[in-house]
Inverse folding.
């Protein structure tokens, strides 16, 4: 269910595993589709939810796009109706996983097409996928919220994720962690802040102090999550735009988010959360 750019996921009071992925660049020949399929098949086998935080598509080979390169287009997309071909083939490819995908957000590659070509690729893809698969994939934003709500009888507890596709560069040293520092200043009430965009991979824990309604000083953890990409651009390091700009090899894959609800002191509902890299 989605309301005002908030995707709500209802869960029973039990351990939950969620696949967090971004920057798939699915239509690019350098996308590691075999690895992506492996991770999605793992989600399918375990009936785990899938969240996609932008740049599902690459979309750089359209007419008048200054970034286009003949070596970066797949044969099945080298046709006159380039964007239509990507959408149609993607719907067929993602169909087995449509019932698992809770939302697809926008990345800078999708918003660039909306700006340059005046067509909304994500809206078109999700509409066709839902129509063909009778699924309920939600269209997210470039940023937004996911509330995973655990019910325990008359009681409940939510895990709130602030997602943002990303901004700025990763930085050879900081790897994008500065953006998480900036987001932590702007965002209130998140249990996790999740970004992609810079093709890095990490989890950090920020611990903050707060004052309860009973005037008790407490602490809580906020997960800072970065998911990398499925497009491998470095190769053997010999040539290409990635090499010419001095970029380093990047990790490939997403992260699994594990949520374990439990009853703490005085029967308070709590959620233990952590992530690990996909294998």
């Amino acid at each position: 269910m989605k309301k005002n750019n908030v995707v709500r996921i209802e869960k029973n009071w039990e351990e939950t595993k969620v696949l967090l992925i971004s920057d798939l660049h699915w239509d690019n020949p350098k996308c590691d589709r075999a690895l992506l399929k492996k991770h999605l098949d793992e989600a399918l086998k375990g009936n785990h939810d899938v969240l996609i935080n932008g740049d599902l598509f690459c979309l750089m080979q359209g007419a008048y796009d200054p970034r286009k390169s003949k070596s970066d287009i797949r044969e099945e997309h080298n046709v006159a109706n380039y964007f239509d071909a990507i959408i149609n083939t993607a719907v067929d490819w993602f169909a087995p996983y449509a019932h698992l995908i809770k939302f697809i957000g926008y990345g800078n590659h999708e918003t660039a097409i909306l700006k340059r070509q005046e067509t909304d690729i994500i809206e078109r893809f999700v509409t066709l996928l839902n129509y063909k698969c009778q699924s309920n994939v939600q269209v997210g934003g470039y940023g937004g919220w996911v509330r995973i709500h655990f019910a325990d009888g008359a009681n409940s507890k939510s895990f709130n994720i602030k997602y943002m596709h990303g901004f700025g560069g990763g930085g050879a040293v900081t790897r994008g962690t500065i953006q998480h520092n900036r987001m932590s200043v702007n965002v209130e009430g998140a249990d996790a802040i999740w970004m992609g965009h810079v093709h890095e991979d990490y989890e950090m824990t920020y611990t903050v102090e707060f004052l309860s309604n009973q005037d008790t000083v407490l602490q809580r953890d906020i997960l800072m999550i970065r998911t990398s990409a499925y497009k491998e651009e470095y190769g053997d390091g010999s040539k290409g735009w990635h090499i010419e700009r001095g970029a380093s090899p990047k990790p490939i894959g997403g992260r699994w988010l594990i949520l374990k609800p439990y009853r703490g002191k005085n029967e308070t509902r709590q959620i233990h959360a952590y992530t690990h890299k996909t294998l």
User: Anything to note?
Assistant: Residues 42 and 48 are 8 Å apart (CA to CA). Residues 2-277 form a domain with the Purple Acid Phosphatase; chain A, domain 2 fold (CATH 3.60.21). The longest helix spans residues 33-46.
